[in-house]
Amino acid sequence: MDDPILRRLTGAPVDEPDPAEERRAALRELAEWNRYLNSGQYDADKEAQREAEAETQRTRKLTVAQLLGETLNEANGPDSVPLNGAGIVRAALQGLGRATDNDG
User: Which of 102, 65, 82 is CA-nearest to residue 94?
Assistant: First the structure.
């Protein structure tokens, strides 16, 4: 019987929470929060969260092709040559022997 109302109705002893213990727990939590805030970690965590949210918003607005292109650019580095999508497809098809006469 964990319900305090049922305990009162049946006459079973009720385990009331100790107000002093609740106060001590709240003070410990407050002290921990102050240490976290004063350590600078709070600001770093908030900045990381803002950056992650901004990145999420930015990537949501990208099309699949833009996202793929950006991913390839990040993987290849800044010195890589931009890819010509149509040229790559034509080269791949030529390698398979399926290219058309209009290779351009």
Answer: 102
Q: Is the backbone of residue 14 left (phi > 0), alpha (psi -120 to 50) or beta?
A: beta
Task: Report pLDDT digits (tens) over 66-103.
Answer: 777 777 777 776 665 556 666 676 777 776 655 455 55
Residue 79, burial from CB neighbour count under 10 angstroms (0-12, 13-18, 19+): exposed
Convert the pLDDT of each residue in 29-60 to its tens digit.
Answer: 999 999 988 998 988 999 999 999 988 887 77
Identify whether the C-beta of residue 103 lies closer than 8 Å to the C-beta of residue 90: yes
Give the whole-angstrom CA distance, residue 18 versus residue 22: 6
Sign of CA dihedral 42, 44, 47, 48: negative
Contacts of 12 (CB under 8 A, 6+ apart): 1, 6
